[in-house]
Model the fold of this input.
Amino acid sequence: MARKGLSRDTIVDTAAALAEEKGMENLTLRELADALNVKPASLYNHLQGLPELNVRLAERALDRLIDTLQQAVDIRPVTGALRALATSYRSFAQEQPQLYRAMMMLPQFSDPGLIARKQAFMDLFVRMLAPLDLPSEERVHLSRLIRSTLHGFVSMEAAGFFRSPLATADESFERTTEWLCEQITRTEANDHGGTNHQ
Done:
C-alpha cells in the first residue's frame, strides 16, 4: 500500500528540488526515496520508474513556465508583451535550470499530459501575437522564431557562453529582444502594405 500522505505531486515536487540541488543526471530513485523518508519500492505505487519521473518533471517544468509567462502575454502593445515574456522566460531558465533542462531533454512528447502542456505553452505565444491580425502561417513562423531564439540564448548562456568583456549577457539579451520586436513590427508592416497598425 502507498504510504498515507505520499502523493505523486509530493514525489515530483521533491524530485524537482533534488534535481535543482544535484542536477538532473544525478537524480536517483533511492535518493528521492530517502528525501521522502520512504522505501524506494513505495515510489512505484505512484510512478513506473525513473523514465516516468522524467516525464512528470517535464510536465511540472512546463506548468511552472506557463504560469510564469501568463501575465506577460496579454500586455499591449505586442512588443511590450514580448519584452515582458522574454524577461520572464530567461528568469525561469536561470532560477530553475534543471527543470528547464527536464522540459527540453525528452526526445519526443508522447505522453498525453505532456502533449497537452506543450500545446498550452505554444498557445501562449499565439495568443500574444493574435492582436497583430497576421495570417495564421505568419504567426506560426513568428512564434517559432521567438521560441527558438529565447531557448537558444538561455541554453548557450547556461553552458557558459557570453562571457566576453566587450559586452555583457544582459546587454546582448536586451538587444536580442529588441531585434525580435523589430521583426514583429516589420512583419506586420509588410503584411499591411507597409502600414504599421500596432
User: Anything to note?
Assistant: Residues 194-198 have pLDDT under 50 and may be disordered. Residues 5 and 103 are 27 Å apart (CA to CA). The chain is about 70% helix and 0% strand.
